[in-house]
Amino acid sequence: MSELVLSSRAAVPAAAEDLQSDRWSFGQDSDDLMLSHDMGIGTTCLRLTSTQAATIRALGAATECVRITARATRRVELVLVGKKTGIGLWGGLASRSDDAEGVMAALQKALGFAEQIVSEVNSLVVIIDRNHKVRRFNRLCEEGSGMREADLIGIDAHKLFLPASHQAEARAHIASFFEKGESYETSTPVDSLLGQRQIQWRNKLIRGSADEDTYVVCSGIDITEELAGKRRLYEQATKDRVTRLPNGLASRQRLEELVDLGLPVAFMTLVVLNYRQLRGMLGLTQSERLMKQVADALVQAVPADWMVSRAGGPEFQLQADGTRSDAELVAVGDEILSALAKTFMVAGVQVHLQAAVGVARFPDHAVTADDLEMAADAAMHAAMTRSRSGLQLYESRMREELAEGLWLDSQLREALAREQLELWYQPKVSLVDGTVETVEALIRWNHPEIGYIAPDRFIPRAEATGIIVEIGRWVMQAAARQAKSWADMGLSLRVSVNVSAKQVAHDPFLIDALKAAHDHCDGFIDVELTESSFLEDGLAARAFIESSRALGCGVHLDDFGAGYSSLGQLAGLDLTAVKLDRSFIAGGGDSPKRHALLTAISSLAKGLGLEVIAEGVETEEMADVLRRLGVQYAQGWLYSKALPAEVLASWLSQQRPSTAAMSDDLRAPVRTPGSTANSGEIAPHPTLQM
Ligand code: C2E
Ligand code: MG
Ligand code: MG
Questions:
Q1: CA of 53 to the centre of ligand 1 (A)
Q2: Which of 143, 146, 430, 468 has an alpha carbon 20 to 30 Å from 346's alpha carbon atom?
Q3: Whole-angstrom distance, CA of residue 553 vs CA of residue 61
């Protein structure tokens, strides 16, 4: 309680001497303290000194007591109980200090108001004394707990509504709090009539004059809903909406945690390669349903300690901590791939997936979480383009390959748009009479900065990313245009185009493109398919062969004997020719085994009514062997490398008149750069030796 000595103005009304629980008020603009008698009988005005005025104006929002001494007709000691009441306004109740009842009544009124606030405030308030006993338990606490404040005063606060598991911790907190006295916040679960609620407590020490007057005021707010809301938001941010799997963010968070702890982690990136085509075919909703099935299959396929997440679209990530051997990872990867190899049903449609999985390990292959994801990505890209099983463990060279692959992807799109692709043509020469009636169109990419890029470098990449579909259509158009242009010159050359297994499986308009090409050049177009088409999608491959044959196109089985050739398969296909892979031919040697194989294949092919074309013929010796075996056609550097269209025309014109069915004007000798075709040295473009 502050004490002020008040000196009244000259004329202080006598009523000031009879003050008893009057209201007092004081303003910002005047140093006059107004005392108004209850019942509105009158007002007394006391002039304060500037110090006294400043003390009153220092009163805040909490009720305080100020003792003042006024000199009116006689000395009067007043007790002002009050606080700030408005903007530039202070007020409360005033009593004479010797009027104990009046002072008490004023204090009671003020304190009662404060106590009532504690009771009614819209947050939980529990006041605890030094012995951890309850001193206040406000109305909100009563409502939430179903207990009455009156019954709780003096009992152990921790036992009140904290679960047993949290009592010891809370006791320790409060004890240290009484020692240190710093406010702190804590969040605890609390049993209530509504079940367990999470309460955020703000604990503050209130010190009285004596030690036993020190209390902790715990004010709490129920944050159960807020936490649930936050949890929902977190779930939304970290869960994939469709599959309910953790998303890429959640996967990344977990990975970072493990890596930060220095724990070994195995990480896999999986991509559904034909997702884009499936989405085009099924639409977004159904393809998302398919991804849900994929997610379920993945979760089933991997051991329980693997975290499966969907990074978005067709991409999933799998991770597990602990040291894992290559063999173990390959086993998990194989399980995954065989789970995805089954037939999926979406909206009554049977769907087959192609997936690629890249696997990397921390710390063996990467130093950070980011690095590990990149390593697994690099392995996955290698799996996309190389690994037949669709599973690839990380190897250090793959990062460069990935970088190159990504570069190729972007450049290849430009290549199409900017007409950097070219078709070159390699003749197929009759081993009977040396004539050339057919050429194979082989794609070349003339990159403006690095020159010619061979198809083996970019076709696998184009197949992996799906851009092969567009490239394939371009090839058909360009080949048809060239065949027509030759025909217009009087040079009737059939052109065979290579059709990738991916085109057959994923381009729904492939046959339309072939028909358009066929029509454009009056049917001078054939196709070459590899056996991989039957592995990729056997049904689609058969359908494409049938449709091509119906158009009148020849269908050549390319690279026969290179991989998983099935002689039996040939019988059921409407092919026109097989092309013996150059691995059969290369080296030129005439080993008895090779001889026996070539003999068997060529007689089988002949028996089936198929022409046989030998690829990669580089020597006369080999040509002779093939001729004796009855192989009808040969293609290879012995005759010519692939040539740009106009160079090929010149080359043809220089062959013996019988080598090409061409008009006289084309037969005029044309010098071509390095046109020593028989040595296989034709290199019309200095940057490319094909
Ligand atoms: P392929 O269809 O088997 O083509 C034959 C490949 O053997 C060509 O390689 C050709 O240049 C090469 N070659 C021909 N004769 C000889 C020889 O005597 N010795 C040797 N060592 N090689 C010879 P190229 O042009 O590099 O094409 C490689 C592969 O790229 C092709 O193999 C084909 O699978 C693919 N490819 C080329 N053009 C296209 C295309 O337009 N579309 C598709 N989808 N693939 C294509
Ligand atoms: Mg070919
Ligand atoms: Mg071939």
A1: 102
A2: 468
A3: 97
Structure tokens at 466: 């799906």
* Interacting residues of 218 by C-beta distance below 8 A, sequence separation 6+: 124, 125, 126, 127, 128, 201, 202, 203
First-to-final CA distance of the chain? 105
Local structure of residue 551 (DSSP, 8 states): H
Q: Name the residue with the closest Cα to ligand 1, atom 22.
A: 616
- How far is it, in rounded angstroms, from Cα 387 to Cα 397? 15
| 558 pocket-lining for ligand 1 (C-beta < 6 Å) | yes
C-alpha 93/C-alpha 101 separation (Å) is 13
- Residue 542 phi/psi, 5-degree rounding, is -65, -45
Residue 323: its pLDDT value, please? Answer: 95
**At a CB cut-off of 8 Å and minimum separation 6, what does 231 contact?**
none
Q: Which residues surround ligand 2, an ion (CB under 5 A)?
A: 498, 528, 558
3-state secondary structure of 636: coil
Q: Which residue has the tokens 């007790």?
A: 79
Q: What is the DSSP letter of 48?
A: P
The rounded distance, in Å, linking the Cα atoms of 304 and 311 is 19
Close Cβ partners of 467 (under 8 Å, ≥ 6 residues apart): 409, 412, 413, 416
Contact at 8 Å (CB) between 205 and 127?
no
Beta strands in 157-214 (DSSP E): 184-192, 195-206
Proximal ligand: closest to the CA of 616: 1
> Is 145 exposed, middle or buried (CB count within 10 Å of its CB: 0-12, 13-18, 19+)?
middle
**pLDDT band at residue 572 using 50, 70 and 90 as cut-offs:** confident
- Structural domains of the chain in order of their starting residue, each with its CATH number: 2-118 (no CATH), 121-228 (3.30.450.20), 240-395 (3.30.70.270), 406-667 (3.20.20.450)
In degrees rounded to 5, what are phi and psi of residue 611? -80, 155
- On whether the CB atoms of residues 256 and 265 are closer than 8 A, the answer is no
Give the confidence band of 669 by pLDDT, cuts at 50, 70, 90.
Answer: very low
Under 8 Å between Cβ of 620 and 638: yes
Q: How many CA atoms lie within 13 A of 20 on its CB side?
A: 7
Give the span between the Cα atoms of 130 and 594, in whole angstroms.
Answer: 99
Tracing tokens 């379920």 back to the chain, one arrives at 296
Torsion of CA 562, 377, 316, 458, to 10 degrees: -40
User: What's the CA-to-centroid distance between 94 and ligand 2, angstroms?
Assistant: 109
Q: Report whether residue 462 contacts ligand 1, using a CB cutoff of 6 Å.
A: no
Residue nearest to atom 20 of ligand 1 (CA): 616
**Given this model, what pLDDT does residue 396 score?**
92
Displacement of CA 356 from its chain's centroid (Å): 17
From the CB of 532, is ligand 1 less than 6 Å away?
no
pLDDT at position 668 is 30
Tokens, residue 323: 């040291």
The type of residue at 173 is H
Cα separation, 285 vs 289, whole angstroms: 6
CB 127 within 8 A of CB 115: no
The residue length of the chain stands at 690
Residue 642 CB–ligand 1 contact under 6 Å: yes
% pLDDT > 90, the chain = 50
In sequence order, which ranges of 489-531 are alpha helices (DSSP H)?
A: 501-506, 510-520
Which residues have CB under 8 Å from 574's CB, separation 6+?
A: 545, 546, 549, 555
pLDDT average, residue stretch 391-420: 91
User: How far is the C-alpha of 556 from the C-alpha of 145, rounded, in Å?
Assistant: 84
Is the pLDDT confidence value at 74 over 50? yes
